Amino acid sequence: MSDALAALRERLAETSDLHRAAAVLEWDQETHMPPGAAEARAHQIGTLRRFAHERFTAPEVADWLDALDGTFDDRPEEDGDRALVRVTRRDHARATRLPGAWVTAFAEATSRAREAWKAAREADDFAAFAPHLRRVVELNTEKAERLMPLVAEVHGPGYAPSPADARYDALLDEFEAGATTASVSAAFDQLRAGLVPLVAEVMARTPPDDAFLHGPFPEGAQWAFGLEVAGAFGYDLNCGRQDRSAHPFSTALAITDVRITTRLDPHFFPTAFFGTLHETGHALYEQGVSPALDRTPLADGASLGLHESQSRLWENLVGRNQAFWAHWMPRARAVFPDALGSVDAEVMYRAVNVVRPSLIRVEADELTYHLHVLLRFEIEHALLAGSLDVADVPEAWNEAMRRYLGVVPPTNADGCLQDIHWSLGALGYFPTYTLGTLMSVQLMEAARRDVPGLDDALAAGIYAPLLGWLREKVHRYGRSLATPEILRRATGQTLDAGPWLAYARAKYGEE
Ligand code: ZN
Q1: Selected catalytic residue, list 174, 279, 286, 378
Q2: Which H or E run contains 331?
Q3: What is the pTM of this model?
Q4: Within this chain, do residues 162 and 245 fall inside the same structural domain, yes or no?
Q5: Which of 213, 232, 500, 510 has the smallest C-beta neighbourhood within 10 Å, fewest atoms?
Q6: Which of 103, 137, 167 is the last residue of a domain?
């Protein structure tokens, strides 16, 4: 048994190294690589990922897992060995269920789809992207059919979804283990019922002045101010760094090397600042994973939703909070005297929380953001169910925009072509953005209950008590516990839209 465990751990360390090395190349591609190297880089990354896949799906890995089956079941669920075997078994089952032919077809189709999407978005030409999206839906349907038995096994005998839900569940499971279409729909129905009237109520008011957010904001000062706040939150730059990229992201190259990127717009303050706070939230999670889990599959976020709960918590619940600006505004005025010299904290707070229906998800405010996610969930589900044809996506999109936000995109580039996800082959991903946001409020409420004086500390710009609580309750586990279990232990609750709705009403409701 201990031989099998030692062999398994050694193999996993090796595949982890290969994946992390590929991630370094991907990070470099988005930050420093000259554009002419794209083709060469694709080969390099492809080779590393393929080696990792081959080493992970080799027959001896199945033998080791079989030898270890049930061995640690008398230990606590989060025990390192027990969790390692459980999570590896799950990853291995998924990896081996998809035949090599599918993996190759998917890699090729999405590589082409990504290029086609860029061009189609540029030219506002949905018809040029449609055949690629059709192929992505086909391949995802095949993937779902192959993974459905595994997902059914996880959910046990009471699990009886409709065929369409079963497909969506199989895809969702990759991003948000434990979630189902039914559980997501229940949360989203609750959210929709409270959110739609609240948005209408806010819209009926005159929006506060936010013209001063258009600056100018010198890029060097933005860079330094964002990092100053990130450092105050606890982001360790001895084990991290910030670079520029077209689309902000964070990436963990090791627990001791977690990087973020940002983009700077001299004419709009929120782009870089809240982008940095968001990515810092992701990075704090990865930096907080127990060092004992490094070089194993457990050294990662428990799910995309839980990851997003961390980014949203620091970006919105901390960074878009009244007390935050009361504390930081003198500093912001000193750093940006031209744009903010005469702006007080209350005016700043209102400006960075303006609610207005917009076309683009990533630029949406805290409230309308979820309406963008709801419509993507509906459309993806319908595509997989076969009840919506790819050709009809633009019409379905625009109809949902009218229904939810009262605005219709003038072009598909600002409508159904705006997001990269489908061109990457990712269906079932969007719901995690909203699930994470709902969890962020559940976690923050629990932190308030557990940590005496938490709000006083936050108002004084002292973030260690909050970060310490998150480290203890969420970060350190990595993937050793599944998201629903982490949430249950930390908050005593299951996923629930109620706390977020109460938060949104208190912040944005009738004054
Ligand atoms: Zn995020």
Answers
A1: 279
A2: helix 322-335
A3: 0.95
A4: no
A5: 510
A6: 167
